[in-house]
Amino acid sequence: MPAEMEAHAITVHLDRLLAERGMTLTELADRVGVTVVNLSILKNGRAKAIRFTTLTKICEVLTCQPGDLLGYESGER
Question: pLDDT of 8-20, one tens digit each?
């Protein structure tokens, strides 16, 4: 299987953080300087990567740590 097709176990908690902050995806996109489409891809867990500069800006805007935004769920439960 090609590397880009491999599944990953990273979860994204952007919906929860936005709800806790009372912020919309559009507002976050404007404040971070990325498109709503790209944030939506991240929010829905379909992103293949995130730039550290983007992660930094998201954490600054949402006043959070990377671990608040991203999680790891092992397939072994």
Answer: 899 999 999 999 9
Band (pLDDT 50/70/90 cuts) for residue 2 is low
Instruction: Say if residues 63 and 31 touch (Cβ distance below 8 Å).
Output: no
End-to-end CA distance of the chain: 24
**Which pLDDT score is estimated for 74?**
84
Cα–Cα distances in Å, from 15 out to 2, 5, 40, 53?
Answer: 30, 25, 10, 20
DSSP E strands, the chain: 10-12, 70-72
Rounded distance, CA 73 to CA 22, Å?
Answer: 26
Residue 55 DSSP one-character state: H
